[in-house]
Structures are given as structure tokens and as C-alpha cells.
Amino acid sequence: MSFDLQLDSTRWRKHLDTVLAEMPQLIPVVKGNGYGFGRERLYAEASRLGADTIGVGTQFEVSEALERFAGDIQVLTPWRSFLPSVDSSRVIHTISRAADLTELADTQPGARVVLELETSMARFGMGADELTKCRDALGSFVLEGVTVHLPLRRSNLAEVRRLIATAIEAGLASDKFFASHLTVAELETLKGDYPDLTIRPRVGTRLWLGDPAAMQAVGTVLETHGVERGERVGYRQEAISRSGTIVIVSGGTGHGIGLEAPRHADSMVDRGKAFARGSLAAAGWTRSPFWIEGRQRLFLEPPHMQVSMLFLPTGCPAPAVGDQVRAAVRWTTTSFDRVIEAEHDAEHQIEAPAD
Ligand SMILES: *Cc1c(COP(=O)(O)O)cnc(C)c1O
Predict the structure, then answer these.
(1) What distances in angstroms separate CA 283 from CA 234, 242, 273, 276, 300, one per listed residue?
(2) Is the shortest distance between the CB of 200 and ligand 1 below 6 Å?
(3) Could you tell me whether strands 72-75 and 53-56 are parallel, antiparallel, or unpaired per DSSP bridges?
(4) How many CB atoms lie within 10 A of CB 78?
(5) Strand pairing partners for 224?
(6) What is the end-to-end Cα distance of the chain in Å, rounded?
(7) In tens digits, what is the pLDDT along the chain, a chain of 355 residues?
(8) Nearest to residue 11, comparing CAs of 354, 349, 261?
(9) What is the pLDDT of residue 262?
(10) Other CB atoms closer than 10 Å to residue 243's CB: what's the count?
(11) 237 burial class (0-12, 13-18, 19+ CB within 10 angstroms)?
(12) 289 Cα to the center of ligand 1, angstroms
């Protein structure tokens, strides 16, 4: 009895193929929890899509990716000397400071590198002066191109043009330019503006999670108990303020349950409304991501490692042991026990919060 991702893989693959057709140069990103699917499945899909390169999150993810994926591996977090670094002709390091290039030269002088420019994200990357320093220190490194990480906003066109101009001025944009978060329309426009430049969009979320209807998180009811008001229950042995049913469902902190993005009841206004209704949410009860009988149900107490305890008020029909309970989870923080094949069921779909 597990916490599962139900995947309509026919539908999912159709979506992946559509994204690839729109962005033939795309670099699939396979990192972290594998966007809920697990990295293993994404390496395989990236191969099926015919990707020549994937992006991985950290230097720690490189060894595994080399074993599971036959093409090139671009490490998205900029290289740092104090982290383990795999020396392989299939690995492309991201460099965001000239000093790192000097350090990398000691151990991997012929490594393949991309140079990252700072964007309005203000996460990693360098300015024009530092980029020039890197250019002059390239030595026998193989320069793969310039890379940028853009914010999630309506249009990144103006900013990306500025960044490409910076790369061109440094004499570094003759070949490839790697970017995240560009739309199909923006890519088309840029292709027109810079016909000699190969722009490689790195895509994770829009690729893997772009058709939420292909996916559904489900827990399984493992136990139910009737409870009377005043009874002491749970780890914390607090007296319950209402009578009803406690439902034990698979899916706990070990799966990432309880890490959902804040939702409605968490805003002050909604808490106020909840308070006005005298609801349990206002009394400090928290909404769980689990839906039963058409409503998002409250946690009896914070989720446990492998299960959650939910509360159903008197009058709400209790599910049976073995019943499945749908959940609205954040895919990038959830680890599933299994991915199981299931056709999309529009009628019962529960929408996941945005990642
Ligand atoms: C994670 C990441 C991406 C992919 O981001 P999504 O929003 O999942 O598409 C692209 N580039 C860099 C540098 C990243 O860290």
C-alpha cells in the first residue's frame, strides 16, 4: 500500500513529443527528485526523445547520469573546486567566475565548459568584465558556449537580447547559447535576429510537468477509526474537539507530504473567513493535500514519516480500507513509492499546486 504517481504515459509521451517538435534543440533537465517521476525514468525518456545532452542539477548527480544517459551532461550549478568533480569527455561544467576556471585548469585543463552570464535572477553568473577574463583564460578548455538562467516572467526577450549582445561583444557567441525559460515564440524571434547562433533551451518543468492531466498523485486508505469528541489521539495525545472519523492514508513526510506550497487557508484573509465559519482550519488545523468526498481534508496532526492521519467530521462518509485517495502535491518535492500506469480520468482529477 503505497503513495503512488498514476501516470497516463501515452498522454505524457505525446506531450513530450509535442514540446520537442516545438523546440527541436531542447536540452531536457533531469535533476533533484526527477520532477516527481524519479530521475531514472527521465534519463530513459530523454534518450527516447533523442536528446544529445541533458542538464543535471549538481556535481553530485554527474556519476549517475553518466551511467544512465549516453549523451553529454551539462551541470547546471556552476562548478566549485570544493565539490567532487568527475573528469569525463561527456561532462560540460558551468563556469560562473574566472577564478574557478583557473582552479579547474589544475585538474581538468581540457574540460568542456560553458560560461554563465548573470541575469536579473541574481543567482549565479558573471558580468561582462569577468566574461572577458574567462575568455582570456580559456587555454585548452573546450568552450561550448555561453549560458543564462532567466526568471519566470511574461517575456524574457529584452533581457536575453542584452545578454547575447554581451556575449557577442566578448567574441563568445559565435556558436551556442544556452538558456532557460524562453517560450517557443521567443526562440523563433531570436532565431530570426541571430541566424548564426544555435540557441539551446534547457527545459524541465514545461517538458516533464507541462500536461498535468497526465498525472495524478494517490494515497491508499490503510485504516479508519471512529472518534468521539474529547478523545485523546495521535502522537501528541491531544483531545479532539469534534467527533468523526480518523483516516490513515499512505503518504507522509518521507514522500514530501506537508511540504506543499501554501494554499488558500494559509492566507490571513482565508484564515479570517475560516474563523468566521468556526472551522477547524481557524483553530490551527492544517489542510492536507488529500481530497475525500470532494473536499480537501484536514490533517489530524502533522504527517508522519510514511502515513498521514486525516480527520473527517461526523456525517462525511468514511472511505474503506484499500480505497484510493487523490492528493494535490507539489511534484518537485514529492517522492513516490511507485509510478503506475493509469489512464487520465478527467472527472476525478485533482489539480496540483504550481511548482
Ligand atoms: C532547473 C534549471 C533549469 C530547468 O528549470 P525548469 O524551470 O524546471 O524548466 C534550467 N536551467 C537551470 C540553470 C536550472 O537550474
Answers:
(1) 17, 12, 12, 11, 12
(2) no
(3) parallel
(4) 20
(5) 247
(6) 26
(7) 699 999 999 999 999 999 999 999 999 999 999 999 999 999 999 999 999 999 999 999 999 999 999 999 999 999 999 999 999 999 999 999 999 999 999 999 999 999 999 999 999 999 999 999 999 999 999 999 999 999 998 899 999 999 999 999 999 966 799 999 999 999 999 999 999 999 999 999 999 999 999 999 999 999 999 999 999 999 989 999 999 999 999 999 999 998 764 444 445 555 555 555 555 555 668 899 999 999 999 999 999 999 999 999 999 999 999 999 999 999 999 999 999 999 888 777 777 776 6
(8) 349
(9) 45
(10) 14
(11) exposed
(12) 26
What confidence score (pLDDT) does residue 347 get?
A: 77
Contact, 167 vs 117, CB < 8 A? yes
Rounded distance between C-alpha atoms, residue 102 and residue 90, angstroms: 21
9 exposure class (CB count in 10 Å sphere: 0-12, 13-18, 19+)? middle
What are the φ/ψ torsions at residue 45 (nearest 5 degrees)?
-70, -40
How open is the CA angle 165-169-175, to the nearest 5 degrees? Answer: 75
Rounded to whole angstroms, the Cα distance separating 227 from 124 reads 53
CB 189 within 8 Å of CB 159: no
* Alpha helices by DSSP H, 138-254: 157-169, 184-193, 205-208
Q: Does the CB atom of residue 183 touch ligand 1 within 6 A?
A: no
Q: Are strands 27-28 and 198-203 parallel, antiparallel or unpaired?
A: parallel
From the CB of 76, is ligand 1 less than 6 Å away?
A: yes
Reduce the DSSP state of residue 135 to 3 states and report it: helix
Q: How far is residue 222's CA from residue 224's CA, in Å, rounded to a whole number?
A: 7
Q: At what angle do helices 128-136 and 157-169 cross, to 10 degrees?
A: 40
How far from the centroid of its chain's Cα atoms is residue 333's Cα?
A: 7
In terms of pTM, does the model score above 0.85? yes
Query: 205 in ligand 1 pocket by Cβ < 6 Å?
Result: yes
Ligand 1 atom having least distance to the Cα of 124: 13
Cell 549523451 found at: 71
The length of the chain in residues reads: 355
